Amino acid sequence: MLNVPELERRWKRYRLSKQMPYIIAGSVSVLVIAGVAFSLLSQSKVIPAVAYQQSKESVTAVDATAEAKTVEQSPVKVLRPEKGPSENAVNEAAGKPASLPSVPADTVQQNTPSAAAPVVQQPETKNTVTLTPSMHFMKDFESDVMDYYFNDVSPTPLTSNQKAPDESRDEQPQKKALPSIVSEPPVVKTPTVKNIPPIEQGGPSPVAEQKQPAKQMLIQRESDMKDIQDVIARFKANKNPALSLFVARRYYDIGNYQQSYNYALITNELDSNIEDSWLIFAKSLYKLDQKDMAIKTLKTYLDESGSVKAKIVLDQMEKGAFE
Amino acid sequence: MQNNNLFESSKEAFLDVVDANAYVQLDRVAVVYKSLMEAIKKPLKMILLYGKPGTGKSMMLGRIYRDLYEDQKIVLYQTPITDEDEFFRSLARDVYNHISDETINFTRFNELASQHNFDTTPVVLLDEAQMYSPALMEKIRLISDARKIKFIIALHKTEKEDIIAKEHFQTRIWESQQLYNANASELKIYIQKKLMRANCFDVANMFNDKNVKLIHELTDGNYRDTNKLLYVLFSISSWYEENQPTQISYTAISQKLIEMAAIETRFIHA
Fold this sequence. Notes:
The complex is a heterodimer of chains A (323) and B (270).
Chain A: H1 4-73, H2 75-95, H3 105-111, H4 117-130, H5 132-153, H6 164-169, H7 172-175, H8 186-195, H9 206-211, H10 215-238, H11 241-254, H12 257-270, H13 275-287, H14 291-305, H15 308-319
Helix pairs in contact in A: 1-2, 1-4, 2-4, 2-11, 5-15, 10-11, 11-12, 11-13, 12-13, 13-14, 13-15, 14-15
Chain B: H1 8-13, H2 27-41, E1 46-51, H3 57-68, E2 74-77, H4 84-96, H5 106-115, E3 123-126, H6 134-145, E4 150-156, H7 159-169, E5 173-179, H8 184-197, H9 201-205, H10 209-219, H11 223-243, H12 255-264
Parallel strand pairs in B: 1-4, 1-5, 2-3, 3-4
């Protein structure tokens, strides 16, 4: 006698066992497909994130390089606002050795450019960018001062006097007409070079040595020298006037006025339109007790360019108030 | 009495009995039948019909017996007679109408055979011939060689029995025919013919190629196994029709029922 219900249960078990391989294979295939799809999706999510990160980094790098170029090409504009406290501290330390011990070493270290100058200066340049409004203030201030000087002190022979304030903001137009120091009359250049003895690389000048006060300053100078040597090496490689100008300014900052004079002269020979090369050249002469030559150089430059900065520095030198 | 259950009469059609009237003529089997009938007319000593169990050897012998019974002397032994004395006694009675209580051995049977003459050599059909002893088979061969009786021997074609057949009959058998399992199309014809003979036309139409293919896979086309499977299949169908008629389809035989029948008949081990 057939037991059909029991037979039906056996048949269900049989069907289940027969279909089990297909169920397992289907499940495995579904899991594999899901896994592959998930990995593909996760990769597609990671790639944009990485691309975004890379683009972000590249943008940052571009900003950094751009800012570094800004620092190198127009160091005065960039560094002036932020070097106030630090350089003042350094200058004060250089001029007043007795007060040096009170200057914290960290402050000196932070304000001292390291071997990797662009990298170290990135945060400073970023701060400079954020301080851009103060630059306008300085330019406005300079233009006001320029107006004062042009109206009251000296009527310049240049016909472009009225444009001087604008040109001080945009240096490109006025630089086109500028002669280099080499092309200057021998009265300006030759005596200066002859009067100054040959300068050794990194060798401290007598004047600088007189102002070298203490160990803390020596530490700073070692760091400065390392930084400068690095930039000099780069300058020798590509003859970029921005680098020589940077070296000149750095030498001037640490009190090595002979080297700052040399590199300002080199910068000017490479590109006579760089205003800071004239200014550092003149300031270095002033510090080297060549006050007359410095004033003469500035006047020559001022006659050609009508630079506001040159006018200010010249006025300070003539009044003996330049420090 | 009219059976109201659709599948009951179908079930009865697949009872595994050797009935020459239920013989289903298929193309390939028809060729074998025709060859055997022609071989019987020839002056052959012995004819061998072999094949796997369930391929229709017994049905073939039954069909031959039925067809020749009225025309000539023909005897069918569906069950082997292994005892030699009984075998010769049965043979003398059925062929020569010699009824006696005396012991009939091989010599006595030859004497009886020489006393009777027939226009057509009597035919003796021995089914399940593999059951006979070699000594008796040797005497059967000698009787055939004397052309007193023409034997048609049906035996299973297993590997071992094939060797035995060759040893005994290789030089003596002039005609041999082999029966095979049915292929799918033959099996479909076989099933449908059986059902139509039982007047189960509706059920016969419920078998499609897919059903028959599954049945063929389960039974390998063996007629006996197919009969067994279909008998159980219709038994299950009959149960569903009586108890859960909504669970079965009347348009096609479901695969479920076939597999259930296969589980019951052990063609599927579940």
